[in-house]
Amino acid sequence: MTDATLSGREDRSASDHDRRRAARRWWWSLQPLLPDGRPNLHADRGALARLRRASTPLDALDEAAVFALHRALGYGQARAEETLPLVAVAAAVLAHVRDHDPTAKPARAVGRASLADHTFETAALSPLRLKRLLQAREPEDLLRQMRRLVALARGRLDVGALAVLILDWGEEVRGPLLRSRFAYDYHAGAGDPPGFTTPPTA
């Protein structure tokens, strides 16, 4: 591994960390309660309600909160025509998250609990819906599929992880790797202990 490769990975990791943190801070800024349970005097319930009602990313672009998230994520004027639609999707999806739970990673939250679950009865997201999500590329479709994921997770997810997932979902280089990892985690690929053997079917 070259120093350049290592440096690039470190930069990407730092970038992801910063984006997750920025998304969490943005989400908390709109919530009626702060993380410590105190009332949030600057909460914008109106923006939350309007983002929840937005039926397309274009609808969400009416909200100043979307542009606040765009700036917080480090995006500027350059390539705004590419970055803004995805940020609008992220904002409109995150508005539906009711509880931030750092342990509730998106794929695991809606996937099957164990490799032993052959019929996916423990998966909140059905295999068919997983396929639709994995095929989503256009912002409008991604908005629909990600909102369904949040609903199936009962509104309890890791806000930062969900934001980065949405922002990079259709990205040319990272997107395929991200979607593959999502499918792996959904199928409980790492969910069973070493030495686990799937019992034979009847």
Care to describe what's here?
By secondary structure, the protein is mainly α. It has ten helices and two strands, in the order H-H-H-H-H-E-H-H-H-E-H-H. The protein has helices spanning 3-30, 45-53, 57-60, 64-72, 80-94, 106-110, 127-135, 139-152, 159-168, 174-186, and strands spanning 99-100, 156-157. It has a two-stranded parallel ribbon. Helix 1 crosses helix 9 (159-168). Residues 1-14 and 198-202 have low confidence and may be disordered.
Brief sketch in words of this structure:
With 202 residues, this protein is mainly alpha-helical. The protein has ten helices and two strands, in the order αααααβαααβαα.
Secondary-structure map:
Elements: H1 3-30, H2 45-53, H3 57-60, H4 64-72, H5 80-94, E1 99-100, H6 106-110, H7 127-135, H8 139-152, E2 156-157, H9 159-168, H10 174-186
Parallel strand pairs: 1-2
Helix pairs in contact: 1-4, 1-9, 4-5, 5-8, 5-9
